[in-house]
Amino acid sequence: MPNMVGNKPLKTTLLYILAFSVLIVMVSPYLFMVLGSLSPWDEVDRRIIPTELTLRSYEWLFFGGEGVLARPWLRALFNSLFVTLSSTVLMMATAILVGYSLAKLKFRGNRLINNVILFQMFYPAVILLIPLFLIIRYLGLYDTYWAMILPKAVNLWAIFMYTNFFRSLPDELLEAAKMDGASQLKIVWKVVLPMSKSITTIIFLFLFMERWVELLWDMLVVNSENMLTLNVLLAQMFGPYGGYPGPMYAASVLLTMPILVLFIIFSKNFKNGMQFVLK
Amino acid sequence: MNKSNARLGWLFASPYLIYSLIFFLFPLLWATYLAFTNWNLIAPDYEFVGIQNFIQAFFTDTVRAAFFVTYKFLAMFVPIVVAGALFLAVLIHSLPKFKGLFSVAFFLPYLASGVASAIVVNGILSYNSPFNIWLRGTFGLDIDWLGSAILAPLIIALMMAWKFAGYYALLFVAGLESIPKEIYEASAIDGAVGWKRFWHITLPMLYPSFYTVTILAVGLMFGIFTEPYVLTGGGPDLATHTWQLEIYSQAFERLNAGFGTAIAVINSVVTFGSILVFRKILEKWGAKHGWE
């Protein structure tokens, strides 16, 4: 950095070359995964760039191979999408309602709830793991979608974020809408939410990402093969089928692509939205 | 008016209240009780055993391994991820254009599932991989990466650093952007430029970001599960056996629900204590540079 004055264009070019090289390094595991999934089987893990591309790994994944039955990978992908979406939508809805009530509806007990939420956020969740599992079992929810969705239907961090954000919205605006006779629910939907687009995008992305890669809980509460999420199925298959790296890469691609695509679609306002979350 | 507000407030907050009752308060009480029993997850009968679980934990190899392994992970992961994130942040910050684009690109590893990245790492390190063949051919090095008690945790620490560096970098970028220009101008008059400026001005000014990133990174190390579960299974010789693996295997593989809960309680206390110590150390460093 020092003594580069007068060499500005050169310095800038070097910076971009460096930034681009780092970018390649950061995304190389993804490239490795995609190339591995498309490689002929005798080249998987043996060559970085395959000599030809083939879909054999994906075929094996969906239709099985000699002596190996196909596993329900597509069903697992559906399970992952269904569980993650339901859980994320519920977390968003509850966070918006609870956040709004804590920030804008001044009622007795409001501050108490706020403090309890803060306490819960810092309370180590690991202690609850075993009793939560037992509750699911006693409620008869073991091996159902409910077991994966209900305990992850409320997210404290999202409530906290929305509460703080809604507090920063001017009261006058809401009062005006109220004068026009709008109900509180309508105010949330028509006035508050449109003003919260960037933070909503970021919170949604974070909740979705976190839910998508959950392993331990989904592994515990679900047992039958048709109920497993893609992440769990892949983790379980990796042991016995580690000798078939090609299909394992194909399944990894299946697991990674939806979330990459989702993220890239919403990434336009990523940096601005993050600024609020990181504060 | 106010009364309807109050009713509506409680109504809107009710999903949270019901949830907390069923999925927080009740399991919390249950956990407190379970930790003092010898229940095995199946049998109808079990006994209250007092603090026996906690004493037993002290003498259990796997619990002790989890305790020490976590600090090994900490010592490897925290410096790597803090340095990596800082490097990425300075890089992003010094680009005249496309800051947002590179922020997004460096963040992409955060999206990776630990399962998928474990599979990729396993492939890169497999015996006949181009990487290992190159090492053998060029340096005559034949390394059993995941079979080494030092390399296996290092590899997991690197995987996690890859995943989190781009995320933590955003915190540093926010910190860099909040440093007022006047400070640089004033320090330039005093002759602080280049590395000297970075070391004596920029780094101390970044203290709030350092604080947040370090605490997040430390906390993360007490909750590792996916990567060692898929990649090493806790091995070799418990070298990557984390708290979460220990709690999982005690409660759900050996069915010691009572003992497992006690270990979870110990894990929480250790986590709290360790984070507290790190906070004190960081605050001391901050105070030296004028941060309250």
Automatic annotation (TrEMBL), chain B:
Residues 67-278 form the ABC transmembrane type-1 domain. It is found in: Cell membrane. Keywords: Cell membrane, Membrane, Transmembrane, Transmembrane helix, Transport. It holds the Pfam family BPD_transp_1. Coiled coil: none annotated. One of its GO terms (biological process) is transmembrane transport. The chain crosses the membrane at residues 12-36, 73-92, 104-125, 145-162, 205-225, 257-278. Its main location: membrane. It comes from the Bacteria. It is a multi-pass membrane protein. One of its GO terms (cellular component) is plasma membrane. PANTHER family: BLL4140 PROTEIN (PTHR43227:SF11). Belongs to the binding-protein-dependent transport system permease family. This is Sugar ABC transporter permease. It comes from Guptibacillus hwajinpoensis.
